[in-house]
């Protein structure tokens, strides 16, 4: 092999890397587009098969037949199904999800108003679940079959299987009504509600940025119990999956090799084993976060938390199907987005994927 030939090899590899990245990017965009299109189609079908008459929800059940017929035509329900879907698709792609029957406002504005409350609650919950769930899962795997393992598994089983609304009511009874350790239902006391100028919609962040520390403590007192409840729920799942991933990693040959070489047990567990287990854990945490962001309907209902879950519940109870479908679409987009993010992080963290690039 001549020196000139040796120099041309790396250039060829670099030249081939660009088309591969382009192909991967095109596939990713195509997959995302098809997924979102399928999500829009399923959402549209849900609105057509549910046993709720959208016309009656608008005009009421005492409207005359002529009023009913006029509203039926105005809503486009007289058109063929494919034309209705095309109109729905165009409106959704331009950010028009319709108008809420309940609030008389555009659904996009309603979701912008209620989603920060859900985002704040879900973020606090997933942080609690991740910070405590991963170490507990590691401890359970390291002490497999021991007392610590059994206690962690039982603790997680209760959190994963107990009805979350029951835990919420029990928590309010004990920690609010009896012990008075936390604030009651709602997001903030009315005496502090107007002292915070809305900026991000995240009351903890807004009150801290504006130096309203009394309001900050009040918001934190309201947030503590529902966030701990959701954190316990996600912690149960994350700890169980961490234990499973860690048991698989601790049984691998590279762990035996590291022990033979005299690597400390702490480094083996927390660097080597957990480092490899972190790759699939990214997907677990991301999907858990998406599950909390979808509204945590029961938790928000029990704690009167003015988020997306309570908004969807009120809309469903009042047959406001435009709002229900708009919220459902947002939830689907959240799942797709976080799943995509977890795939990207998976590719960054997994050395086997990096070597194939």
TrEMBL record:
Residues 115-346 form the ABC transmembrane type-1 domain. The lineage of its organism: Bacteria, Pseudomonadati, Pseudomonadota, Alphaproteobacteria, Rhodobacterales. Belongs to the binding-protein-dependent transport system permease family. Gene3D superfamilies: MetI-like. Keywords: Cell membrane, Membrane, Transmembrane, Transmembrane helix, Transport. SUPFAM superfamilies: MetI-like. It is a multi-pass membrane protein. Its main location: membrane. This is ABC transporter permease. It is found in: Cell membrane.
């Amino acid at each position: 092999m001549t020196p000139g030939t040796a120099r041309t090899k790396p250039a060829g590899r670099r030249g081939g890397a660009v088309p591969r990245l382009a192909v991967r990017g095109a596939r990713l965009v195509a997959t995302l587009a098809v997924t979102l299109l399928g999500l829009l189609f399923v959402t549209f079908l849900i609105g057509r098969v549910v046993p709720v008459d959208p016309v009656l929800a608008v005009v009421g059940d005492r409207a005359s037949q002529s009023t009913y017929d006029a509203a039926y035509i105005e809503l486009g329900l007289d058109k063929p199904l494919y034309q209705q879907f095309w109109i729905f698709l165009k409106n959704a792609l331009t950010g028009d999800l319709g108008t809420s029957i309940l609030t008389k406002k555009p659904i996009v504005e309603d979701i912008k108003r209620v989603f920060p409350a859900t985002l704040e609650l879900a973020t606090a919950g997933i942080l609690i679940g991740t910070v405590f769930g991963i170490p507990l899962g590691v401890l359970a795997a390291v002490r497999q079959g021991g007392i610590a393992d059994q206690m962690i598994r039982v603790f997680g089983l209760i959190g994963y299987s107990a009805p979350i609304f029951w835990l919420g009511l029990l928590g309010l009874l004990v920690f609010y009504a009896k012990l008075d350790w936390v604030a009651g239902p709602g997001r903030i006391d009315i005496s502090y509600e107007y002292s915070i100028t809305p900026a991000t919609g995240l009351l903890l962040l807004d009150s801290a940025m504006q130096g309203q520390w009394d309001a900050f403590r009040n918001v934190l007192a309201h947030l503590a119990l529902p966030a701990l409840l959701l954190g316990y729920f996600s912690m149960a799942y994350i700890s169980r999956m961490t234990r499973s991933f860690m048991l698989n990693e601790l049984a691998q040959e590279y762990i035996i090799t590291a022990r033979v070489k005299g690597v400390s047990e702490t480094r083996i567990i927390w660097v080597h084993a957990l480092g490899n287990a972190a790759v699939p854990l990214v997907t677990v945490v991301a999907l858990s976060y998406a599950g909390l962001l979808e509204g945590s309907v029961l938790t928000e209902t029990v704690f009167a938390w003015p988020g997306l879950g309570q908004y969807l519940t009120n809309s469903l109870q009042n047959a406001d199907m435009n709002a229900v479908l708009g919220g459902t679409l947002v939830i689907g987009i959240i799942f797709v987005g976080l799943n995509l993010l977890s795939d990207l992080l998976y590719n960054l963290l997994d050395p086997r994927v990096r070597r194939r690039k």
